Every structure is written in structure tokens, then in C-alpha cells.
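Kindly go through the entry underneath: sequence plus C-alpha cells. Please state briefly how this chain folds according to its C-alpha cells.
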Amino acid sequence: MPVFSGNPFSFASAADLAMPQISFSYDYTGIIASVSIAIFASFCAFEMARRREQGRYWVSLGALMLGLGIWAMHFIGMSSFRLNCGVAYEPWLTLASALPGVAAASIALRAIASRRIGYLRLLLAGVVMGSGVGLMHYTGMAAFQFQGRLLYEPGEFVFSLLAAVLSATLALLLNRRIAHSRLRRIPYLASLAAAVVMGLAISSMHYIAMGAARFLPLDGVQITSSISQTSLGLLASFATLMLLSFGLLFVFLYSKTLSARKRYESILSTTQQGFVLIDDTGRIVQNNAAMVGLLKQSSDQIIGKRLSDVLDQVVQDVHGAYQLQANLRCADGSLLPCMAYVNTFVDSADGRQISFALFSDISKRVAAEALAHAREQQFRALLDSTPDPMVISAADGRIVMVNLQAVAFFGYAHDALIGQPVEMLIPAAGHQQFRQDYLQGGQTRRIGGESVLYARTSDGREIPVEVSLSPIETEQGLLIASTLHDVTERLRIESALLAANREQEAILGTASVGIALVQQRVIRQCNHGLDELLGYPVGELKGQPTRCWFHRQEDYDMVGSTGYAQILAGQTYMLDLQLQRKDGSLFWARTSTRAIDQQQPEKGVVVIAWDITAERRAQEQIQLANDEQRAILDTATSGIALIRERTLHRGNRRLHEMFGWPLWEMLGQQTAIWYADEEANRIGGLPYETIWTGQSHTREQQLKRKDGSLFWARLQGNAVDPHDHSKGTVWIIDDITADRELNDALRSAKEKAESATRAKSDFLSNMSHEIRTPMNAIIGMSRLALQTELDRRQRNYIEKVVQAGTNLLGIINDILDFSKIEAGKLAMERIDFQLEDVIDNLGNLLSMKTDEKGLELIFDASAYVPTALVGDPLRLGQVLINLGNNAVKFTDKGEIVLGVSCLRQSADEVELHFWVRDTGIGMTAEQTGRLFQSFTQADSSTTRKYGGTGLGLAISKTLVEMMHGRIWLESAPGQGSVFHFTARFGLQASAQSSRMFTADELRGIRVLVVDDNAAAREILHDMAQSFGLHVATAGGGRQALEMVAAAQAEGAQFDLLLSDWRMPEMDGVQLVGELQRSTRLQAPAVIMVTAYGREEALAAAREQQVELSTVLTKPATPSSLLEAIGEALKRFSLRRRPVAELGQSVQQAMLQLRGARVLLVEDNDLNQELALELLSDAGLQVVLANNGREALDILAGDSAFDGILMDCQMPVMDGYEASRIICQTPALQQIPVIAMTANAMAGDRALVLAAGMRDHIAKPLDVDVMFETMARWIKPSGAAGSQVAPPRRAYPNSIGSVPASLPGIDVATGLATTMQSEKLYRKLLSKFEKSQSQFELHFRTAQHSSDGHAAERCAHTLRGNAGNIGARTLQQQAALLEQLCRGGADAGPIDAALQAVLAELALVLHSLRSMDAAASVVEPPPALPPVIVVSELLAASEKLLPMLEDGDPEAGLRWEEQHELFKAGYPEYWQRIETLLGDFDFEGAQQSLRAAMEARRTEHGGAPQ
């Protein structure tokens, strides 16, 4: 037989529903009991949930009770269910079925117990509750066992759940609605209504679900459960009994609680003290009626507030009981004084901290205390405010109180007086008896009236007083207040009163105003002034009514009503009115009337009257002036406004017209109506900060008229009183629209004028260049002519041409500079330079001119002036040369002194002061005033006598200002002039001192300075002394001999002699000769200082057999003097590396590079030849590429190079692009690329490094720098594998020597470029002549080509080639042309620069052609052709072929070494081969050599000769 194992949940199918069921029936008594149990449990649960504020456990107990009620209802209902078969219940599942109901009830009750629950949460709680009821039922049905199967009809199953959810939700909503409506006042209504709905929901769900159940028979099922239906009935009955007991207990306890609560609420409602109960969150949850009355708020308004919301002060963080006096905040905003008692305790039920507070109204007590305190303070203040001393004593005469005046009067401390007898202060006899009499009478009286009483102070002084006694009734008894009045002054006054009365009568009689005593409007007494004022005889006014002086009855009545009301109120009544004299004439008078005693009107009033007719006339004049001012303001052409707080208070007629408003309509409006938008209004308010400081403010701004149109206005504002903002500001506003339009027109005209000025300046600049071009040719050709054989007359003519041309060129240069200044195109460089170089250059330029005029040129430069500067040395030299030339020009005898000193110096900047002083003609103040103007000299006679354009000083002034300095002049007629200027320069960051020895090394050295010129002697003295030397001076040779002898006799002989050469009586050479020839004097080391040339001084010394080791030419600078001292004392003086050391470093670099294989990328054939020659001679293997593209092609097939020398500007592909590609190619990245370019600026170097090149070699080449730079980066790898010749530094000069000088060419610089190889230098000169003779044609063609950079490259090539041969001037002019082409300048400046280049190029080419012509004249006769040995010829050719095949530049040297052999052996081919070698066409040369060798072999049958 199968064993029953429970009822698994399953739905009945259609077939199951058609099967017969087990019959069943219900006991209706059980049904009624089950429904009642459900309603009773729900009611108890809802009521317990309402008690949540009394403890959290109430909700839990309610959930338990509702859950058990659901369970009990189910099983009571099941016990009334009669199934026609055996029935039992599974025990554990039966008990577990109670849990869903308890859980669902807990969630639902906590939801309705919450104060802040919303409808959504309430709906969710209803769903949970209904679902919990359903879950409990079906769990209980699962425990139901019978002999069959339990199935459910699906539709009825769903309906049962929906009914439970909807009914539960309805019950919860109903409970909440009633609890929050007026019906909540009915006890139990909300819980009862919700309980009925909830009980019906629970029971209906049960019976609907039972209706959905299908009990199908199943044979052979054995029931194993121990709980029968009878047992279930007993269990359900027990649960019901427990539930009823618990419910009854709850009702009993709640009734007890309710009774206690009613008593508690009755006490709270009847007590006069306010009460609040505060929960653990600090909010009020309960209050009583007294509290409502105190706060004047409803109970609901008080609930939820914090204690701090109703009390103005709360003690924080205090546990337990405390009491404080504070103020309650009432609903009407008033504060109610109260005494608050607050106590805090812990609720034993749930551990929460609960507080309650009691409040007692103490407002009346506080008011009484305040009143008593106020009265006490008032009495004390009254006592202290009385002007006389006051002493309050008891009946026995002891002092109980004194005021401050008594303390001050008697000089005792306050505490020292209290308790003392009154007799201590007033030691009069009969005090006690008088006090007894007074106490019996008890009225205020005065003593000391007839006889004087005396008070005694702490220092013993006695003061006459009058004492007033007053009684004071107090709770402690009668007190006596004694008021003391010092009558010292009264006695003095009384004694003087009679005299005063007499004087007063005299004064009143002579007073200029009228004075009258009036009683009852009748004149009782008056002075003579009133008689005169009203025109009455003396004494006639007495007894007359005051109506006699009133002109109008209205005035008389007004004084009688209004006037006397003010007078009797204690005020002074002032009135201006017309009075009439006795003769009827009228006049304006001002009266002042005051009562003698306002408490006793019968004593009358005093009237003072005086004539104000003149004052009234003045006021009328002022009013007239105000009216006139108003008229002026209304007719003013400017708008005038008084503004306070940005509101218009006053404004004239023009202001309204300007803004288009009707007259006076703008008054009272905000000034925002004047502005177009908020931003303009904000800007309009900004100036007030300035105005309130007392400053005036002016601005121009667009304002808005009433119709919205805008106009330009000028506004000027000032504060009426900067210290009182309430007085406002006054603004003057002018419509400047027309002025703005005029200014725009003027600005346009100014721009046109400036454009015309610039056009003029451009014209001057272009014309200066146009004139300079032929002038350069004139001067250059004249200088060339001077180098030819000329007779004396011709040479004189040509020299004058050169001199005139040079002067004219200087004038043109001034005009050019001035035009640049006017055009704003003159720029200042900022480069590193040495100040000594600028001064040395100045000395070289000026010394020739000073020598010609016999002037002394002296430099006065402090040794402590920094010389390593950053700035524009060219422009600084230009200013110095200009001032120096002017000094020489206007000085016929005497000296020229140039000085420099340091004004101020910082870490990176210095300001220097330069001056040039001469002993020339000088100038007047009028002449100096116009000296720095353009095209202006001192006067017209100056121009006629000395020449010049008058531009030099104007240019100098501009240059000085561009160097952030100023220039000025000090001069007097016949006394010479001193030109001063200041300039600012940067300091070089890594500058080194030029000294190699220190002051310690020079300390102790004695120097004697000999010079007949005092200024020169003083300057040399200061320079030498600044080096730390001990210096003495002598004015001539004789004095110097005497000083040398005296010093030697004292044992302190001189170590060094600084002597001028040309001196009267005994010159410097004679002085040195005397010392050297003397047997008794020891000659010191000698430095001969001369302004006449080193060679002349040495020649004069040789003639007199005098030995001179050191000659210093004037003007001497600190550096040149220091170097001369070092030379004379055999000490190094400058930080320069010895030449031998330089040579050794270059040799070492060349040895380090020996065997290296480099790729030379260069498009210029002259540069190619120079670089190939230098590198090959140094033992390097060189492969040539003509541009960047060709270099990349070579590197693609052969990358075995140790380094690459890269020109930057080339056609096809420039060096920058080629370098970037090389650096991006992995196979080539290790090869160092070094730039070789004529662009040596810092920006160009940055471009070089950015392209990936390692370093930079500037052109023209400094060979030593080139090899040292290459040695830093290029390391020979030995991959060439061929024998490399050792480097050479000396070359055979087979072509002939180069002339020592060539016009336009610095031969020394050119030879340095070729490492002193005259042979190579001549080749460079020859190639330059061939390649650049058509420069103009090439440049013009490049200008019109499609390549925008062609002209720039053409000028760049010329610049590099000129630098290589030493043509410095041509190099600079070509650089300028290149710069103009790069910057895209206009055609005018470019053409002017081109003309200058062509003029200098013509000079250079002429020099080269003259050199070639001279060489052809002296060329020796041709030698006899050598004997040809064919075998030697072919062997030499065989050695040359592999060199040509490898492109080795050594092939050219090998050809030159055996030039005569090849020339004789290949007469038809040698010229072609030499030309190809010269063009570095090694492939063509190889082919021609092979053809020549083949021809030679064919000619001689291949047999050797």
C-alpha cells in the first residue's frame, strides 16, 4: 500500500475536473468562528501598530498576533471542513505554515506605522500582505493528508490570490485614510474598519481557495501523519485561546495605559506650565494646552519641531536634568521670558533616550525685576546726574550713600565715606539737635541761607556751601538727603552783582541792537538801541503796546498765536519781518524772543531786534545770482547733471535736449536710461571708485537718446564732496559726435601724411642706393688708379676724387640712415660683442684725423666697466664715431677725450655713460637748443666753414633712444663741448675677464706716469691705479728723472715707466735714453705711449740708440694698457691660446680624421673645389654629390661613409630635406650629418639641429674650426682600405705667389680659408672670376623664373664664394641681398642692394683680372718640352685611373704633381682632361685618359720608348 507523502502543488486538467470527487461538507459554526478570529486578530494588530511610538516591540507583537490569527483562522476553518474519507495533517509543515503570515504581517504593519510612507509603498505592502495570506493557505493545504489527490482549478486559484491582494491593500489604504482624516478623533475607528476588511480578506481568500481545490479519490493510500482532524481542532482551539487571551491581555493593558494616559493628559491639560515630550530624534512629539497658549501656536504646529526651534538658547550635550532661564519664540515673533526645566531619561522598554521640558511663564517677574532694577539705576543715575554733591544719611547721622559729585567735591573715596558721621563733612555746631527737629517736622528745608555753612574736604580746605534737606521714605526707615551747593561763586557774584548791573545798564544803553522787556505784549523796559531802531525819543516806548512797531496786523496776530506758543514751550522764537518806525517808514528786522521763565509767563519775554535790511538786500542779490546761474545753465552748450546714487536729481535744459527728453522729464530717473545695454551701464558705474577719491574722471562713451539712437559723448565727473557721498556728483556731458567724425577725418589725413612721409623716406632710401652704386664704382676705380704709375699731378687729382667721394658717401650714408629712421625700418641687433673692440675701432678711425690736426686723443675708461656686452656694436660705434668726428672737426688744438663709466648694473643688464669732450670752438645756449634737429647745425656759417648735412646728431639721438638712453650737451663758446649719452646693454652669460693675472700679482709694483698733457696723465694714472699699481705722475722728462733718482735714493725705485713720446724740453725717447745711459740710476721697464704711430716711435728710438721693448699707441684703453703692462713685465695679459697650441689642436684633429670616408654634398663648384682640396690634403676620402637627391642616390647604393658634410641651400633637394630622410632611414641613422652653410644665425642653427644634423660649420670656412668640428663627430672606420697620404699643412706654390693685397679682397682671410695654400687660393680666385662674372645675368634670370627661391640661392652662392676668397664687403652686401630676397621685399630695396653688390663685384673682378694680367706679364718663358718616356707616362696613367674610378680628389693632386709629363705626353688630350678634373667630372676625365692612353699605344705600336 503506498504511503501518503503530502500534497504536491499541481493544477487540475480538464480530465481531472470531469472525474468524480470525494464528497465534503462544512460546519458553519466553525466558519463563523474562523471569520471572527481573523477580524479580531487584525484589529489587535492594527491597534498595536499604532503604538509604535510607545515602543518598537508593539509592531512586532502585532505582526505575530496577525500571523497567528491568519494561521488559526485557516485551521479552524479546516476543522469545520468534513471530507468523506480519512484525514490527517503533517505536523512540521502545519507549524511552518504560520511563518508566511507572520512575515507578511510584519512588513505591512511596519509600513502603516511609518509616518513618511507613500502610496506606492502602501500598495506594495498590500501586495505582500495578500501574497503572504495566500502562501500561508497553500502551505497549510500542503500539510493536509487524505486518501486521494489534491488538485487546483487554475482560474479559481488565481482569483483567490487577487482577492487576497486587493482586499489586503484596501484594508491598508482604509486604515491610512481614516488615520489622516478628521475621523481619527473617533477611538478605534481606523483599526476597526481596517480589521473588518482585513479579516474578510483573509477568510474570503481561504474559502475561495478551498473552492478551487479538487479532492480526487486514490485507492491504497496510507496516511502516516499523527495529527488527526480532531487533534487539529484541538490545536486550532488552543491557538485561538492563546490569541484571545493575548488580545484580551492587550485590551486590558491598553485600557490601563489609556486610563493612565487620560490621567496624564488631564494633568498636562490642567497644569499652568507648558509641557513638551521630545523623542530620540530630538523632535517634539507631544505638548499640552499650556504650551499652545505660551507659543500662540496650534498643537499640530508644535509637533515635529526641535527644542531649539521654540527656545532661543539650549544647552547642548547635557544628560539628566537641568534648568535655565530663556525666551520662548512665539508665533507672532515675540520672545516670552520663561524658566525651562529639561530632563532626559532612557526608556526601559526599547532603550531610547526621551526628554521632556516644562516651561513657566516668568514674564511678570522679569518685568518686575527689570522695573526695580531700572528704578534703582534711574535713582542712581539721577543721584549722579545732579550737578551738586549729595549726601544721604540715616536718622542717626551716619552716611549711607553719596553721589559722584560728593566724592569729587570732598576728595574722599566712596567707601571711605559710607558709615561715617555727617559732622565729618560739615563740622557745624548743633547738628544732632537740628537733625532731631528736622525728623519731627519731616519737610524739605534749606539751611545756611542767612549764615554761611562751611564744608571741610579731605585736604582740610573749607568751602562755603548752602545745604538743602529732603526726606526719603524707605522700608528701612526715613533717610535724609542733603544737597550741598558751593556758594563760593555766588558770593563772588553777589559782590560783583551791583557793579554788573551798572555795567549791564551801560552795555544795554550802548548796544547796537534793540532790547526790550515785554509783559502782556506791553513794553516795560527797553534800551536806547530800540529807541533809535524804531525812531522814538528815549523813554517814549516804555508802556506802549508792541503793536506800534508792527506794520501789518497779520504779523502781529501770527506772533501772538504761533510765536507765543513756541516761547512758552521754552523755545527761542526767531522771525524776520518788516517793522515800522514812528515816522511810518518800513525796514526789515530780525527778532529773537525768549521767555524769562516759561513756568511763570507773567515775568514776560525778552525781545532782541536788529536791522537786517542790508542782509535782505544781499539775499536778494544772491537769489538774483542764482536765477542768473540757472539761466546760464539753461543756455549752456553742455549738459550738466547732479547725480546721486546713479539717479538724476538736477539737470539743465541742454541735458534734456541732448538726450531727446521733454524738459525736466528725466529728473528722478536712473542713469541706466542713458546706456544702450547692461554692459554699457556697468561700464558707466566703474568710474565712481576714482571720483570718490577726489579725482576728476573723464571718458568718452556712446550714450542713448530717448528714441533709441546713439551718439558719442564726453563725460566729465567730479564729486560734490568726496567725504559725503550723499551730496552726489556733478557731470558735464558734451555731444562729441561731430568731433569724432572730425578726428576720424584728421586720422585719415594723418595716415595719408605718414604714407607720404614713408614714400619720401623710401624715395630717399632708393635714391641713396642709386647714388651709392656709382659712388662705389668711382671710389673703387679711383683707388685702383692710385695703384698704377701716376705722375704727381695725376695722383693729386685722383686722391682728391677719393677724398671727395668718401665725404659724399658719408653724406649719403647719413641720408640713408635718416630715411630708415623716418620709415621706421632701422632695427637694432642684439649680439655678443666686446666693448674694447668698439673703442679700438674708434681709435683707429679717429687717430689719423687727430694726427693730421695735431690733437691728443685720450680714452678715459674705467677698468671696472663690464666689456662683454650684448647689443648692437655697429650702432654704438656709429654714435661714438659721429660724436668723435664732430669733436675733431670743430677742434683746432688741444685734446679729444672719450670716456665711459658704469651708471648702474644688475645681474643681466648694465647702463653705461659715454662722453666725448673737446677743446674746440664751443656753442651758445641758442645754438645747442637746435643742435639735435634734422638738417640743422649751429648756424649757417658752420655749414660753410666745416661742411656736413646736419643729420649726424639727429641720427645719433635716435640711435641712443633705441638703446634705451638719452643724449645731451654741455658747451660754452670758446671753452669746448662735452657730448654725453647713456645706453643700456645686456651682459654676456659666460663672459670671461681679459686679465690673466690678479691684483695680488700686481700689488707692490710702482709705476711712474710721465705726460705733459694733464688730462692724459690723469687718465693713465687712474687706469693703472685700478689695476692695483702704486702710481706717481710727472709733468715732463726732467721732473721724471728727478723722481726716479729720489725714489732710488729712498730704496723704493720704480718698476715701470709709462712715458709719452712727444713732450717739450725732453721727450720720452730722450728720457729713456738718459735712464739707460746713466751709471747711477737703475732704468725700470719702459712702455712708450705715443699718438704718432708705433713705427715712428721705434725709428726715433733707434736713431738715438735707445732700446724700447713695448710701445703703446694712443688712445689707450684699459685692455690695451693691461696687455702692454703684461708684455713689459714679462707676464701674460690676455686669455688667448698660443698660436702653437692652436696649430697642435688642429693637427691632432686632422690626424684623428685621417682615413675617414666622407660624402660631400655641395652644389657650388667653387665650394666643391675648396672643400675637396682641403679634405683630400688632410688624408680623407671624399665622394661628391651635387644636391640632396644625388646624395640619397649614392647612399642607396653605398652607405660605407664615416660622415656627411651637407650644404643646406641647394637645387632639386636642399640639405634640410635630405638630412631628414637620412635620419629616418635606419641603415643611415648612424652616419653623422654636419651642416656647411653660410647661414650662421641662431635660428639657422636651430633649423639645422631640427633636421637631424649633428653640428654646424659656418661659411666662409674657418679651416681650424671645420676640422675640430668634424673630429668631434666623424670617427674613421678603416673601411676605405686604401693607403691614405698623411695630412699636409704646407703646399707648393707652383702657380706663383698671390699679391699681398687686392682691392675688395682680404687676402689674409682667403689664405686662411685654404690653410695658407697659395696654389689652392689662386685656383679659387680663378674659379670665382669665371663663375661670378655673369652674376647679374644669372640673378635677373632667377628673378623671373618660376622657382621662388632661385634668386635667393643665386645671392646665397655669391655670398659663400665671396667669403671663401676673403671678399668681405661683397659677402656682406650679398648677404643683405639674400635676406631681402628671402623676406619677399619690394623691387626697390632689392634693386638697390643688387646695385651695391654689382659695384663691389666689379671691383673684385677687376682686381682678379689685374692679378691675372700681372701674372701673365711676369710669366717666365716656356721651358723646353721634357723627353717623353712612354712607359713612365703609361705607368703614371695606370696609377691615376683607379683614383678617377673611385672619384678620389687626390687624382687632381696627382695630375698637378705630374702636370708637365701629362701635358707633353698627351698634347691633344691634356687640356680636356684638366678641365674635366677642374669640374670634378672624374668619369669624363677617366674616359678621356683611357682614350689618350690608347692613342699613345697605337701611335707607338705599344712598344715602350
